[in-house]
Amino acid sequence: MTATAPRPEAKPTRRPLLVFVPLTVFAALAVLFVIRLYSGDASLLPSALIGREVPPFALPPVEGLPDKPGFSDADLHLGKVTLVNVFASWCVPCHQEHELIMRLSADPALSRAGVRLFGLAYKDDPANIRGFLAEAGDPFAKIGADRKGRTAIDFGVYGVPETFVVKGDGTIAYRFVGPITEESYREAILPGIEKALR
Fold first, then answer.
1. Which domain holds residue 51?
2. Which CATH number characterizes residue 160's domain?
């Protein structure tokens, strides 16, 4: 009988440093995201469309609102300044800003200047839109149903609400990201409209 030599003990293997690279990259991206999230004013996000014509689109009306037509890019080339408010019934900030949207629609000076207010209903159910407008009021001359969100993507929308000021020639003059507040109403929206009217 021959004796077998004892096996050497297996040394624990060290994980190569490459295993930690993805974790380090993820951590760095997370820190960068948090810094960007809490720095500056979200309403100042740049838009590649400022100074350019609105993208081509055609939105149908919201089902169940027979007296409220949809709209297309052609409606924004008719010589009148138009505010396009991107909203949704499920959007809490949209409910918060709605009183100010109503105020815009009822402003006699804007009405005399021919300023119109259109709504772009983003990824929303028609029944919910009707309920929201019945309860909070309907400030819109026209409402387009963007059920799949394609038109909002073409406008570069980050999320709802967003409001665009469009000149009479269909050029986007101003973009406001987030809910309109009393301060932004006075200091951003009204000056944006006045500039577009010139």
1. 42-197
2. 3.40.30.10
3-state helix/strand/coil string of 111-158: HHCCCEEEEEEECCCHHHHHHHHHHHCCCCCEEEEECCCHHHHHHCCC
Closest CA to 193 of 85, 82, 103: 82
Q: Encode 54-84: b = buried (16+ Cβ within 10 Å), e = exposed.
A: beebebebbeebeebbbbbbebbbeeebbbb
How many domains is the chain partitioned into structurally?
1
Is residue 29 domain-resident?
Answer: no
Q: Where are the extended beta strands (E) located within 3-154? A: 58-59, 71-72, 82-87, 116-122, 142-146
pLDDT digits (tens, 9 = 90+) for 80-136: 999 999 999 999 999 999 999 999 999 999 999 999 999 999 999 999 999 999 999
Q: pLDDT tens digit string along 125-178?
A: 999 999 999 999 999 999 999 999 999 999 999 899 999 999 999 999 999 999
Residue at 11 is within a domain: no
Q: Is residue 31 part of a domain?
A: no
Flag whether 109 is in a domain. Answer: yes
Q: What is the distance of C-alpha 109 from the center of its chain? A: 27
